[in-house]
Amino acid sequence: xxxxxxxxxxxxxxxxxxxxxxxxxxxxxxxxxxxxxxxxxxxxxxxxxxxxxxxxxxxxxxxxxxxxxxxxxxxxxxxxxxxxxxxxxxxxxxxxxxxxxxxxxxxxxxxxxxxxxxxxxxxxxxxxxxxxxxxxxxxxxxxxxxxxxxxxxxxxxxxxxxxxxxxxxxxxxxxxxxxxxxxxxxxxxxxxxxxxxxxxxxxxxxxxxxxxxxxxxxxxxxxxxxxxxxxxxxxxxxxxxxxxxxxxxxxxxxxxxxxxxxxxxxxxxxxxxxxxxxxxxxxxxxxxxxxxxxxxxxxxxxxxxxxxxxxxxxxxxxxxxxxxxxxxxxxxxxxxxxxxxxxxxxxxxxxxxxxxxxxxxxxxxxxxxxxxxxxxxxxxxxxxxxxxxxxxxxxxxxxxxxxxxxxxxxxxxxxxxxxxxxxxxxxxxxxxxxxxxxxxxxxxxxxxxxxxxxxxxxxxxxxxxxxxxxxxxxxxxxxxxxxxxxxxxxxxxxxxxxxxxxxxxxxxxxxxxxxxxxxxxxxxxxxxxxxxxxxxxxxxxxxxxxxxxxxxxxxxxxxxxxxxxxxxxxxxxxxxxxxxxxxxxxxxxxxxxxxxxxxxxxxxxxxxxxxxxxxxxxx
Amino acid sequence: xxxxxxxxxxxxxxxxxxxxxxxxxxxxxxxxxxxxxxxxxxxxxxxxxxxxxxxxxxxxxxxxxxxxxxxxxxxxxxxxxxxxxxxxxxxxxxxxxxxxxxxxxxxxxxxxxxxxxxxxxxxxxxxxxxxxxxxxxxxxxxxxxxxxxxxxxxxxxxxxxxxxxxxxxxxxxxxxxxxxxxxxxxxxxxxxxxxxxxxxxxxxxxxxxxxxxxxxxxxxxxxxxxxxxxx
Lengths: 619, 231
Hints:
The structure holds 2 protein chains of 2 kinds. By secondary structure, chain A is α+β, with helices and mostly antiparallel strands. Chain A is built from 14 helices and 15 strands. The longest helix of chain A has 55 residues, at 374-428. Chain A is rod-shaped, with a radius of gyration of 61 Å. The A-B interface holds A 409-410, 413-414, 416-422, 424-425, 447, 451, 455, 458, 473, 475-483, 485-487, 489, 501, 505, 509, 511, 513-514, 516-517 and B 12, 14-15, 18-19, 21-22, 56, 82-84, 103-108, 177-178, 193-195, 197-199, 201-202, 213, 220-225.
């Protein structure tokens, strides 16, 4: 189906059909147009009377007389007529214009009640009588008038009939045009393609179309005006041919436009579009050229350039007030574009930095275009990358440390288990020689000590590595200390030392209960191990607005040869000889656990007085 | 009880041997395994009454072994491990162990725990619960007779100690401060001091706990008070 619809043969047939219709219709149309504007023709005959106003004598038209160059002028009140008699027919023309001889002419008068009310002639006579002119009245005879009337009536009737072919022709043409429009551009297979005519610029195309259209209109107008004179069939045929040709051109151009619309090149093939593209290209090139230069400028250079532009702008506005407003608008527009982009970039940097500040090191500031801000963004990105790496390293090393401690302590505990178990078995046996029992006891004791040391080491490393989880609760200090004291009650009694506890009941602290119980336990045990026998151990607590201070005071049983801050280091023991029970980690653990609760711990010695101070947050 | 079969599983042969010596010294029959698979095989083939299970073992670790065992058997299991964190203990107990002992351990303590678990296990089917009896694990308080037994052994408490224990046991799981205990037990409004209560609690622990430093029943809530664990 498509093949037939779109084949060139079909189109050619359609076009030919249309042209034929147009020719016929325009032929007819021209006739109609002529006749409409004829509106009743009066052909003067020899019987018609001309009244010479001046002479007041009626003269019959003498058909046979040839008045060659002589002209009779007549001006009436309402319609000035000037006659020129020629070839027996009356020709009416303007006084001031000498007409060339015409072969045929007609006088068309509009007659109402026997009087000429208006007329249509070749040339327009003046309606005003000029001095020295004669006026001639012209009265068509009844017969002339009647025949003219009948003729015009008949014409009018016929007109309607004559319209029919024109209209039907027009309808035909219309449908053919619709078909052509639809088929425009489509080849046999239905594909769209352009023809070389489509390369014409759309404006020229439209221009030509309008031109042809005007030409057609002109022809019609001509025929309406002068068709009666010149409109014989030959002329009409010529005119119809002209109209047909013009229609063909219009049609071809229109179809070209339709084709172009279909393949979307209508706009592209226009002058306006081309000009626009060119302009855009030029502007862009200028712009990028400018940006290149701008980018390469240093910060100072950019600032100077900006100031220079602003100065120039101010000068121009000051000097040319009229167009100053327009320039102001344009300049502000350009500036706004820059500002918007710079502000946008600035915000990008700020928001990126906020994210990095809050700990997200993976954030990268991207898409900054402003030449001033690019180095800033890059700098921030490098910094955050560097920090991120450093943090990663630290975390990794902390993790490895903790893993090491866990693994080592685990590895220590396994053989230690066997040592303790078997030492215990030996102790239970009756060994010989008897000294062997003592040896066994010593092994057992030391194994226990080793066990405690391993556990302490594990605890202190955990808290120092920062991987430990510390709870934080509101606890009653007196309860905490009483509980710690109760745990050591047996040993304390045996030691012969007097423990004096003075902790007000109202004091509450904010800390991790389990950890602090260990701290106090250690300090109590420390006091017990290193106090001079028979002396007292004082445990006091007092509170300030924000803190609570707990003090453990005892009299040392040995000469304290250490600096206050050394004793809390790992494995430093007051007793240089290392002969008593402590492991050296007790104070270290106390310090570590206290600090993990957000408190502080320090030791102060004064002669034989040993003071351990624990400061905690008040709850 | 005596002549009960006990399975000991640990990848360290010396530890297993030492435990075997202690247990057979108490009259128990000991079966030995050195990894989880062996332990399960032995458990299936034999009528074991208690298992001592190390956590870090090759082929199948203690926790997995325990879970598999619990699909079929309900015998008491004591976990043994060098991992001493609270989280490790909780993990083991939640997996289904009845007790958790950290290495290095006191051999006597281990034996005491074994005995305690066995007694509880065999007693479970035994006596019907009386209305007046409070039972938490192996701890039983007979209110009618004001008697306290742990795994069948009677423990002698002073009247004050008994009252404190009863108060805490009747409200198992609830934490009481020293003041509250004092008010309820002494019926006086004047509170002496924290020390007295703390010392009493310590004494009770020494009497009823296998290891007072690691109490099973009577727990110290540091800085706040005391409680007995809920069953």
